[in-house]
Amino acid sequence: xxxxxxxxxxxxxxxxxxxxxxxxxxxxxxxxxxxxxxxxxxxxxxxxxxxxxxxxxxxxxxxxxxxxxxxxxxxxxxxxxxxxxxxxxxxxxxxxxxxxxxxxxxxxxxxxxxxxxxxxxxxxxxxxxxxxxxxxxxxxxxxxxxxxxxxxxxxxxxxxxxxxxxxxxxxxxxxxxxxxxxxxxxxxxxxxxxxxxxxxxxxxxxxxxxxxxxxxxxxxxxxxxxxxxxxxxxxxxxxxxxxxxxxxxxxxxxxxxxxxxxxxxxxxxxxxxxxxxxxxxxxxxxxxxxxxxxxxxxxxxxxxxxxxxxxxxxxxxxxxxxxxxxxxxxxxxxxxxxxxxxxxxxxxxxxxxxxxxxxxxxxxxxxxxxxxxxxxxxxx
Length: 380
Known about the structure:
Strand 7, helix 7 and strand 8 form a beta-alpha-beta unit. With 380 residues, this protein is an alpha/beta fold. It contains twelve helices and 16 strands. The protein folds into two domains: 1-54, Roll (Membrane-bound Lytic Murein Transglycosylase D, Chain A); 59-276 and 335-374, TIM Barrel (Alpha-Beta Barrel), CATH 3.20.20.
């Protein structure tokens, strides 16, 4: 088996002996920290002997900020088809705004490793928030749209980007059709210069779903006019919301099953979070703020506080509680069990692959499991 759940009295040495593996390999694959204490309920990835049969190949993409650690990047790129560099913005009149950090090192690292670098385009304002007025201005004004397209074409050519990812959120309902036309026109322009366009979509479960996240995006039309679709199937549990799984598989499934009724499955990548949250309890609406944590960090929190990790079989997600300074905390995160459930869904529905938000923290077991179950990467 490639996944083992730690039981009372388990040690790395006893697990290694039981499965005829080296302790060093288990420690490395799972990023265990000296003195290599384990948490009851912790899920470990145990490497299986490599099979000589060919693995199925699925597309894998990961979003990265330009300030990502080069060590993390080097350890992640071998498993990625696409590196989405986050992000470029634009002004109200369509002038492109590059990231605050130099993106060339990431582009060069991706290219040298056979991964396709992609320019992520977002309508973020000076406060780092999605601004639908920026979207409205550019998608509804032909001159501004053409200005942005011209600068994008120059940028992807100059820096050798393989394509563009459109990550627009909170699109106004009245801008829905203009946004679709924007995506179609950009895709056509990129194809003319040998590039592709992907688009990130909020997690809808019905055609006419209400809400600012959903009403401005026409799943069927956007899936038709662009080359790849990324479903943002996470953030049910989020920083300012109640304590729950970030990407519960039962809710992720509803989105994916609806999406394939509107979009060809082979265009769709399932969004997967590479993080968790730590909530102080009790949760109080408009007051409680969770702390974002990495998946490796989550396990270390459990170990430090003597907490046992539980697993919700409906959400297919790990969680635990602990006390700190007389405050009860609840942590939800991802492990190889929750990831395996998502990989199973990708295969079941015949999706193109997975997209990970975001890869600035290394979770090595995720990538090893991905390579084992899905194939490490495919041509973009």
